[in-house]
Write a structure and sequence with these properties.
Keywords: Glycosidase, Hydrolase, Signal. It comes from Sphingomonas immobilis. InterPro entries: Beta-gal/glucu_dom_sf, Galactose-bd-like_sf, GH, Glyco_hydro_2, Glyco_hydro_2_AS, Glyco_hydro_2_cat, Glyco_hydro_2_N, Ig-like_fold. The protein folds into two domains: 224 residues, Sandwich (Jelly Rolls), CATH 2.60.120; 310 residues, Glycosidases (TIM Barrel, Alpha-Beta Barrel), CATH 3.20.20. Helix content is 17%, strand content 29%. The chain is built from eight helices and 35 strands. It is globular and about 80 Å long. 51% of the residues are buried. Bound molecules: alpha-D-glucopyranuronic acid. The site of alpha-D-glucopyranuronic acid has 9 residues, from loops.
Length: 639
């Protein structure tokens, strides 16, 4: 199948035909607050795929911060352009200006405001900010790189949730979405020597946002991933997707951005495989190339996560990434990795580092600490990165360690299914997620939703997302975590999956909590009857029970109850003929404002198999033993 080669804007325009094209500063949906400032019309918001592999000036570190709960820096109190005295982004020395002229008034002064270390969420900056939801302003100065040729971009790994960016007092652009990267060109705004960057981040969710206000996780507002200043040649590789097709060929789709992108000689090189594939872009700056995979190719797998250094030369730009080559597909009720059936031995995860005060700032060490618990502790080969796109640091760590990944967008619970702006936001978010990570071999599944009630509007919304995902990536599986109907049988529950979306996805995924949220007795669970379509593979995307680490008693919230729940649920799972994997809920206790039992929860969802500080609970051993025996049995069967 020929991948849409009108890469980027065209491909996305096709895929998102009814919504805004990624790459333009799509008009953000109306929200509780809109900036009345004339934001720069960003020509084409660049993708800068694999930007984390490019040299850059990293702006992590100390930034001044100032809260703005009434959003005075974005709009005046009648919604008009903000008063001059409220414009946090002005490129001025506030103290000096006021000392110079007694008529001058500014009701902010970021240069004299306190400092936060970014990337991080402001929830952990001070005790007063622990529950702040709203608009926060950040500002810092930096010296522009002395030698500057070509073009310069500001790239954000992510900022939660709505972001407004200014450089040297000028609007640069804005972005909606808390978990995907975005970049703006600042070539013309950057000046020699000292520069001032000001960023407004508004964490406030609304019924129209993705996710909506009601979730089951902490809303970590802030600049939670790195901000980097990236320079490229005048014409550069803005997107490149290099993968192994199901036909056994190495395919590349690339898009050049710049004045000399058309009819440009390009070259794909994978030195370790002796590959050096010349090509030329078309009039739109796109190139699609393919070549039979060399016999020497070692396919990526959890057991052998082989990554290759991949380079693309395009004039003065030398793009590079580290890429694994593998195939993932379904055949009947089986999931095939590199043509062989696989059982996904997984666990779910939120994006929180280990420790008593997580701030959702994932470093390579933090990612490896979590994923090693899955790979080595649980003998897992799979992780569900719930409920939103996790940091690229995490997905690269999964590539390196060898864990297959379920990646998802926060189309969660009560979405405004009939709101076109909400659909546009979700489509953009899905595209940004897929386009960021298509080169990650670890990612096997794109999920478009979690626990959404079946209605016509919801079905149409999700089918649009499924279609977008298929257009942007025909090499991975599409799924969604679905709800099931719980019925009473003679002695055990009767569960029925009656979701029409089952017809649209490659992989059926079910969240089930019998014995925790229901009055079912654990002893009855193994005899549960399941009615699910049998023509596709099934995974349990969630099941779990809370336990406070160290609490031992014959009741819910004890480690013993959680362990017994796992034994009973695993016994039930073993009887499902088309079950091909699971990602129990959840690796680590995580912050959730919904969980306020003062004895056991204290604002934490305690379904983790390890506590927030990494203390393993009894159930960890139950799952670890099950996966070790499953791995050995599968290995023996494969011989
Ligand atoms: C749901 C939901 C999770 C939530 C979990 C729970 O299935 O998908 O986000 O945390 O149940 O209740 O713990």
């Amino acid at each position: 199948m020929r991948i849409v080669t009108g890469m980027m804007a065209a491909a996305i325009a096709t895929a998102l035909s009814a919504g805004p094209v990624l790459g333009q500063s799509a008009p953000l949906p109306p929200s509780t607050v809109t900036s009345s400032l004339p934001l720069a019309t960003v020509e084409t918001e660049p993708l800068l795929v694999s930007a984390d592999m490019r040299d850059a000036l990293d702006l992590s570190g100390a930034w001044h911060y100032s809260i703005d709960p009434f959003r005075a820096g974005l709009a005046g109190f009648h919604g008009e352009t903000p008063d001059a005295g409220q414009r946090r982004f002005l490129d001025i020395d506030v103290a000096k200006e006021m000392a110079r002229d007694t008529r001058t008034l500014y009701e902010f002064d970021l240069a004299h405001a306190p400092l936060a270390i970014l990337p991080s969420s402001w929830l952990t900056t001070t005790a007063e900010l622990r529950h702040y939801q709203g608009l926060m302003w950040y500002q810092r100065h930096f010296a522009a790189p002395i030698k500057r040729t070509g073009r310069t971009f500001l790239r954000f790994g992510a900022a939660n949730y709505r972001t407004y960016v200014y450089l040297n007092g000028q609007p640069v652009g804005r972005h909606e979405g808390g978990f995907t990267p975005f970049a703006f060109e600042v070539t013309k705004l950057l000046r020699d020597g000292d520069n001032q960057i000001t960023v407004g981040v508004d964490s406030q969710a609304t019924p129209e946002t993705v996710p909506p206000p009601v979730t089951d996780w902490e809303n970590y507002g802030g600049i939670t991933r790195a901000v980097r200043l990236i320079s490229t040649p005048d014409t550069y590789v803005d997107d490149a997707w290099v993968r192994l097709t199901r036909a056994g060929r190495i395919a590349v789709d690339l898009h050049l951005n710049g004045a000399a992108s058309a009819r440009r000689a390009v070259r794909l090189r994978i030195g370790e495989l002796g590959l050096d594939v010349p090509g030329s872009t078309d009039a739109k700056g796109d190139w699609h190339g393919e070549i039979d995979a060399p016999a020497a190719l070692t396919r990526w797998s959890p057991e052998r996560p082989k990554l290759y250094d991949v380079a693309i030369d395009a004039g003065d730009d030398h793009w590079r990434d580290r890429i694994g080559f593998r195939t993932i597909e379904v055949r009947g009720a089986d999931i095939l990795l590199n043509g062989k059936p696989i059982f996904l031995r997984g666990i779910s995860m939120h994006e929180e580092e280990l420790g008593a005060e997580p701030t959702r700032a994932i470093t390579p060490a933090a990612a490896r600490a979590l994923l090693s618990e899955i790979k080595d502790g649980l003998h897992g080969n799979y992780v569900r990165l719930a409920h939103y796109p996790h940091s690229e640091v995490m997905t690269r760590a999964a590539d390196e360690l060898g864990l297959l990944v379920w990646s998802e967008v926060p189309v969660y619970w009560m979405i405004a299914w009939s709101n076109p702006e909400t659909l546009a936001t979700a489509r953009n978010m899905l595209a940004e997620n897929i386009l960021r990570d298509r080169n990650r071999a670890a990612i096997a599944i794109w999920s478009v939703a979690n626990e959404t009630t079946v209605t016509d509007a919801r079905n149409a919304f999700l089918r649009t997302l499924v279609a977008d995902a298929r257009k942007l990536d025909d090499t991975r599986l599409i799924s969604a975590a679905l709800l099931v109907d719980h019925g009473k049988g003679p002695g055990a529950p009767v569960m029925t999956l009656a979701d029409p979306l089952s017809d649209d996805v490659d992989l059926l995924a079910i969240n089930t909590y019998n014995g925790w949220y229901t009055a079912d007795r654990l002893a009855d669970l193994p005899a549960t009857t399941w009615h699910v379509p049998t023509g596709k593979p099934l995974v349990f995307s969630e099941f779990g029970a809370d336990a406070l680490a160290g609490f031992h008693a014959p009741q819910k919230f004890s480690e013993e109850y959680q362990a017994d729940y796992y034994r009973a649920t695993l016994a039930m799972a073993a009887r499902l003929p088309t079950l091909r994997g699971m990602s129990p809920w959840i690796l680590k206790d995580f912050r959730s404002p919904r969980r306020q039992n003062p004895d056991f929860q204290q604002g934490w969802n305690r379904k983790g198999l390890i506590s927030e500080t990494g203390q393993r609970k009894l159930a960890f051993g139950v799952l670890s033993t099950f996966y070790e025996s499953k791995r050995e049995a599968d290995a023996a069967a494969a011989k």
